[in-house]
Every structure is written in C-alpha cells, then in structure tokens.
Amino acid sequence: DFGGEVERVLGMADAALVVVCAHDGPMPQTRFVLRKALANGLKLMVVVNKVDRKDSRAELVPDELFGLLIDLGADEELLESPVFFGSAKLGRAATSLAGFPDSTNLHPILDAIIEHAPP
Q1: Domain 2-116 is classified in which CATH homologous superfamily?
Q2: pLDDT per residue over 20-39, tens digit each?
Q3: Which of 1, 20, 37, 77 has its CA 20 to 30 A from that of 46?
C-alpha cells in the first residue's frame, strides 16, 4: 500500500525532494508524505514543477506548501528549505521563478541535493 511504501522508503532517506505541481499545489498525499518526512527528521528541498504550463500558479505554491509545513509543526530550519522552480519535461530548473526562463538544466537541484544531503 502507498502508506507502507512511503514509510519504508523515508526510513532509508537522509533528505526528501518534495515535488509539487505548479497548477495543483499541495495535494492530500503531499500532507501525508510531509508528515512522515518530518517524523523521520528529514531535510527538505522543494521543487515546484510544471512552471512552464499556461495554468501555472507557481508564485502561490511555495506559500501553500510552507503553510502546510507550519500546520504540521515544522521547525524554523525546515521553513528555510530551498525552493526550486522547474519543468521536468523541459529538463530545466532555477532558484527563482524569475530565473526559470533563462535556466538551461537541472544543475541547481542537483547541486542542492549534494549540499543538503551529502553522501
């Protein structure tokens, strides 16, 4: 089942890359996964995906997600988690929504994984 699989995988992780759709925002399963990630003391990195969609609400989604983290009792450090804006389809990401049009690759996310979750 989904819940059991999430718990098993998060139990082996050092950090979590939380991917949220720029149109849909946090979904019910996002709350479940975040609750488990917090319980396991994981560091978080946030990716707002699909910012290239015409119906994107990318500018609102980070606040929605951080509101959810506050509701779940996240500490101040987690509220400072890095946020990226990207498109998996285009293979690009940036550290700001304004920087996305000039992005050329996924290096900002990959660099953050190395920095925040070293091997």
Answers
A1: P-loop containing nucleotide triphosphate hydrolases (3.40.50.300)
A2: 999 999 999 999 889 989 99
A3: 1
